[in-house]
Q: What sequence folds into this?
């Protein structure tokens, strides 16, 4: 991919540079030769007009003397040039020719420009002469008293102009070739700088797709490519963290499931090996078996609940509700569990008229249920559990306070982790799975809320859930 990208980049550079250079050269050459030719012809017209004026004054000489007479005038003006000058009368008869070898004197010599000059025009033509040499020819009329009495014809081979144009063209081509070479090398370097990190990115991305998150990009500099590299590295960090969490979750879950399974196996083995077991004993074993199965079911239910929460915000079934209805339902459900242990559940709404809040009832019900259930589970007989509901900063605050053993400060963050228990055996005895608070935290977070735990004034714990009325996630 990268090599084709590199090729495309170089090809694009070349196409742009070549087109620019070719157009530029063509323009410069055109401009230069145009200027040189027009400069030369302006000069020739000037000379032709001077000759025309001078010859006109000396016109009334006898034709047979004209050659000598005009020779003085014309040669003086054309001295130092290689311009050929011809003076003709109105019948195109040559009265004088600087090129005496032509032997045109007294003969008719006709050219297109001469014809035009006889019509009163200042005519000019650039033509290809012998051996491919370029010729500029100009002709102007000779007038006397308003009548055209003859013409002055000048012609010059302009090899010098062609030579200048040719040498300029050669220099421009050499110069352009050097530029193309330089740009080629630069674009090769540039394309390498841009595409070589791409190859590294592709390599890392391939490793990610294979499940290997340990590879990282070597970030150099601070440009956009470096930023892309940093983002990819950050993605790898996050993925490896996620992978680690997933592994831990799977191993913890297997471990949790293994404990009740081992219990079930033990009970079954004991029953099988017991000779003539009495009905009382069988019943006792079966009760233990049922307890283990209940535990297994609880773990599986909670694991399923967590999986649903992991599906993210899209799985929320939001509806507007009065928070008091939800809290009252939790209290009603848990009162039969609290009462036998002499635990009293208080609810305080501070007479606030709560606005309806948009929530997924089942998820927030379970979140509050888990905390109140824990408060009852981990508090001694005769304890109290208070649910204090208020409003603050456009959020509903639910405070659940108990006077149980409390949670040490250094454990307060960790109790929200999956399968984390403070005291494994005590928590297991109370039927804990270590998943309740993890479920609670996820459910609250999905509603854009927060949960924290602190120490109650008279010992015990306070769990504070904050649920915003208007969610930002
Ligand atoms: P579990 O199913 O074990 O109760 P949780 O995730 O609900 O799991 O709680 C995690 C741990 O936090 C519990 O095992 C318990 O040790 C501790 N804990 C939770 N709530 C309380 C509380 N109100 N008082 C004391 N300890 C608590």
A:
């Amino acid at each position: 991919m990268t090599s084709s990208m590199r090729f495309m980049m170089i090809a694009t550079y070349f196409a742009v540079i070549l087109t620019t250079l070719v157009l530029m050269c063509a323009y410069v050459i055109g401009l230069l030769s145009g200027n040189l030719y027009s400069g030369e012809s302006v000069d020739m017209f000037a000379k032709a007009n001077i000759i025309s004026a001078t010859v006109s004054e000396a016109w009334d000489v006898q034709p047979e003397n004209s050659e000598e007479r005009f020779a003085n005038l014309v040669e003086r003006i054309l001295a130092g040039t290689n311009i050929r000058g011809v003076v003709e009368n109105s019948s195109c008869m040559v009265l004088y020719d600087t090129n005496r070898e032509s032997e045109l004197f007294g003969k008719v010599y006709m050219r297109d420009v001469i014809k035009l000059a006889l019509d009163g025009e200042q005519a000019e033509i650039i033509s290809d002469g012998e051996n491919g040499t370029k010729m500029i020819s100009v002709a102007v009329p000779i007038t006397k008293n308003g009548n055209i009495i003859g013409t002055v014809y000048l012609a010059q081979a302009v090899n010098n102009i062609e030579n200048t144009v040719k040498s300029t063209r050669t220099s421009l081509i050499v110069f352009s070739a050097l530029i193309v070479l330089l740009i080629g090398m630069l674009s090769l370097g540039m394309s390498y700088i841009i595409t070589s990190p791409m190859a590294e990115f592709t390599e890392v991305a391939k490793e990610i797709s294979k499940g290997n998150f340990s590879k990282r990009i070597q970030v150099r500099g601070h440009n956009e490519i470096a930023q892309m590299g940093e983002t990819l590295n950050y993605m790898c960090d996050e993925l490896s963290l996620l992978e680690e969490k997933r592994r831990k979750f799977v191993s913890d879950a297997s471990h949790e499931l293994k404990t009740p399974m081992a219990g079930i196996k033990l009970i079954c083995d004991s029953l099988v090996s017991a000779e003539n077991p009495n009905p009382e004993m069988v019943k006792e074993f079966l009760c233990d078996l049922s307890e283990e199965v209940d535990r297994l079911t609880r773990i599986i239910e909670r694991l399923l609940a967590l999986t649903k929460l992991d599906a993210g915000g899209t799985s929320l079934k939001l509806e507007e509700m009065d928070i008091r209805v939800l809290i009252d339902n939790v209290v009603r459900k848990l009162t039969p569990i609290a009462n036998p242990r002499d635990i009293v559940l208080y609810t305080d709404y501070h007479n606030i008229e709560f606005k309806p809040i948009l929530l997924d009832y089942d998820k927030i019900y379970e979140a509050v249920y888990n905390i109140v259930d824990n408060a009852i589970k981990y508090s001694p007989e005769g304890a109290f559990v208070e649910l204090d509901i208020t409003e603050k900063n456009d959020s509903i605050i639910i405070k659940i306070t108990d006077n149980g053993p409390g949670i040490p400060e250094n454990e307060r963050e960790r109790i929200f982790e999956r399968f984390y228990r403070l005291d494994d055996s005590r928590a297991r005895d109370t039927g804990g799975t270590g998943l309740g608070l993890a479920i609670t935290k996820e459910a609250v977070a999905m509603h854009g809320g927060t949960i924290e735990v602190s120490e109650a004034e008279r010992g015990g714990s306070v769990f504070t859930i904050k649920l915003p009325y208007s969610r930002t996630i």
Q: What stands out?
A: The CA atoms of residues 416 and 437 lie 5 Å apart. Residues 2-57 form the longest helix (56 residues). The two ends are 38 Å apart (CA to CA).
